From TrEMBL:
Keywords: Autophagy, Transferase, Ubl conjugation pathway. Belongs to the ATG10 family. PANTHER family: UBIQUITIN-LIKE-CONJUGATING ENZYME ATG10. One of its GO terms (molecular function) is Atg12 conjugating enzyme activity. It comes from Biomphalaria glabrata (Bloodfluke planorb). One of its GO terms (biological process) is autophagy of mitochondrion. Coiled coil: none annotated. GO terms for cellular component: cytosol. This is Ubiquitin-like-conjugating enzyme ATG10.
Amino acid sequence: MAAGSISRDEFQSLSSTYMLKKMLATTVCCNRLENISNQMVSDMEIESLEDVSCMPDVSESKTLTYEYHVVYNESYAVPVLYFNIFTNDGRLLPLDEVWSQCPTHYQTHLKDNKWSTLTQQEHPLLGRPFLQLHPCHTADFMAQVISKSSQKINYLACWLSTVGPMVGLNIPSDYMCKD
C-alpha cells in the first residue's frame, strides 16, 4: 500500500463510526447581509442598542441540513467525504452558496482551486449527485501526517478532522483517542 493510503480492509474496520452523519445548522443573516452563526449571535456584544444595523434579524434565519458520507475510493485508495447541503424546503444548496458556507480561511487558501477541490460527483453507492472533497491529494497529505506522528494514529479520525471543517463537519476530539 502506498504511503498515505489506507486499505479497504482497514477502512472497513474503522468506518462503522464515520460512515453517515446528518446535522442541522441555522444561519442568521444580519441586516448588513453578513452571515453569522447562532453562536456568534449569542456571543455578540452590542455596544449601542440603538444601532439596529448590528442587530440580527431572526426572520432572515435559514436552517440548512448537512448530510455527510465517507466512502472508500478504490482508485485513490483513500476515503472520500461526500456531502450535500439542503435548504429547509428540501432543495440542494447551489454550488456557489455551498462554497460561501466554507470558512473564510479555506476560501482564501483554495480560491484558485475551489472547483477542483469541491466537485460534484455521483455517489458511488446511492447513484445520486453529491458534492465531494476531491481525493487526489489525500494520500500525499496523509503520508506527511503519518510520517510526522510518533505514535499510531486513527487514520479516519485524523483525515476527517482535517478535511471535515472545510464543509462544516467538526469532529469531536474524543474520536482521536479511539482505536
